[in-house]
Design a protein that fits this description.
single chain; mainly alpha; Arc Repressor Mutant, subunit A; Tetracycline Repressor, domain 2
């Protein structure tokens, strides 16, 4: 059975083609939004044949799904500062820098907007965040083991609580969050977790 378009992980020359196409797709999303993402235009920008793009990704949503998968793969690994608060601050600062980046911030806004009306894009976006949350959840689990947080603390919910206010600020004000907002989000999530807000029992 053939793989679903946009899910193949090729190597060699095809890996270079994939990288060029995904870079071009990200550029279009950042510059013009999801509504203007067109496979033929992406192929032209990537200097790749249209047939190759249509055959491999099949649709705009297939291309976005693969772009998000690639972004998850390329994301920086979590930091280990030795404390929960330090780790959560590092996570918040990473999110803040991403959203404040002119290209990355615009790209995320475009994908989030598309996810509200396209289920495949929404699924791809959920997978992206599942991967990122799973990457950072161990910092909370280690904090529990060190006695910094109550037992049965839901690690994934704590990580989500760090990012949530940063995304909310971006989407509701149109202004990228500042480093101070990242630190505030980390402190708030840590304080809530330490108070048992995210304990499952």
């Amino acid at each position: 059975m053939s793989a679903e378009p946009g899910t193949v992980r090729p190597g060699g020359r095809t890996a270079r083609v994939r990288a060029a196409v995904l870079r071009a797709a990200g550029d279009v999303l950042a510059e013009h939004g999801f509504a203007h993402l067109d496979l033929a235009d992406v192929a032209r920008r990537a200097e790749v044949g249209k047939t190759t793009v249509y055959r491999r990704w099949g649709s705009v949503t297939g291309l976005v799904a693969d772009l998000l998968a690639d972004m998850a793969e390329q994301s920086l690994p979590r930091e280990d500062t030795g404390t929960v608060l330090g780790d959560l601050r590092a996570n918040a600062r990473l999110v803040q820098r991403t959203l404040a980046d002119p290209r990355q911030g615009a790209l995320f806004r475009a994908v989030i907007a598309a996810a509200t009306c396209d289920e495949r894009t929404a699924e791809a976006l959920r997978r992206f965040y599942d991967i990122r949350v799973a990457e950072w959840a161990p910092c909370v689990q280690q904090g529990v083991a060190r006695g910094e947080l109550p037992p049965e603390t839901d690690a994934e919910e704590v990580v989500r609580a760090v990012s949530a206010p940063l995304y909310y600020a971006l989407l509701t004000t149109g202004t990228p969050p500042a480093p101070a907002a990242a630190d505030r989000a980390a402190r708030a999530a840590f304080a809530a977790a330490a108070a048992g807000v995210y304990a499952t029992t």
